[in-house]
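Before the break, one more example. Copy the sequence into your notebook; we will annotate it together after we see the structure.
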Amino acid sequence: MERQVSAAASGEKDAIVRLPFAGLKVLDLSRVLAGPYCCALLGEAGASVVKVERPGAGDENRRWGHLWHGESLDFMNVNRNKRGITVNLHHPEGQEIIRKLAADADVVVESFVPGTMEKFHLDYESLKPLNPRMVYCSISAFGLQGPLRSKSGYDGALQAFSGHMSITGELEGGPVRTGASIIDMGTGITAYAAVTTALLGRQLSGNGQKVSVSLLQTALSLMGSHAAVYLMTGKQPTRAGSGVSHLAPYGAYRTRDSYVVIGTLNEETWHKLCRTLAHEDLMAEPRFANLHARVRHRRELDEILHGVFGAKTTAEWVDVFEEAGLVISPVNTLSEVMDHPQVVENGIIVSTQHPAGELKLVGAPMTFANWTLKPTSPPPLLGQHTNEVLQQLGYTLESIAALRSNGVI
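Here is what the structure looks like once it is written out:
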């Protein structure tokens, strides 16, 4: 499947530009979120993606969350831009189908527990002789080495294991999971980056390679400065609710009708905030004289600011802060942010035609001057393209019928 888009490039208006992964073939053996999201992004950039699922049951994510016309929106979100087939990997003939697909693939993505693909003889070392140019991406919970390599894991478990929950929530509350599946989705983006890096390496060397990413690696990377501070000082960051443990004031403050988030990153901004709030007296207060003092006396400062912000509505405070050149944000609901002109005018929401109607999704988290990334096709129904893909591999309709009756597909 090759896609072209119109774009103004090299000074030529409406030049036809080939999407970067047009012509590339991706074999998606992954499940749930991280791997499927990686492959959806590859498809959005032009690759032809074949998703393999278990006969009968399919990806377990098909049954999660909110259903739309009987299909999980959680599944749909990370499986657009793919053709779908069902193959029993436990069956020798099913393994042979995967070998044939891998032999012609540029990228293979799998997210089984480490050691599983070796049992099927579908691991990188087994497939490499068939296709030395293949980029083979393994996604795991805890990585390919170490005492936990064979453990399964999911977003909440890794938020807990990696320390994310220890720094999330109110200071005196219990551990809190981030509402969105940031570790799973972040690992999907990490896998996309790893695959594209390996494909660039193939351009230079002519050879593919195995790459691996894990929920644990992604989770620790997303820790950012919290991890760096601990590694260099041994100090455990504390929970700071809606704020940041090393900055004050910083966080969500209740207005007359909702909440706003504000923060000060330096002394100049702190002074401007005090003047904007008509509380210049706070600048002379010893408890708030500098950043470290404000962090130590965060509770007293927050109590004062909650009282100040309660005097106006969110809209009024937004106007005041923007007039002063200070950063402020309302705490939006999804209905408020999805319809916001900033989201609309940046084309962040995309759509594709599903058999049940228009399917709206959040698009790829990147934009390019010469390419427009958008869904090429809706997520597949379970096994929707099995016959089509197997016929392309050389199977006859009679042999496909035999595979189906034998439980291979």
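The chain is about 35% helix and 20% strand. Residues 1-15 have pLDDT under 50 and may be disordered. Try to locate both features in your own notes.
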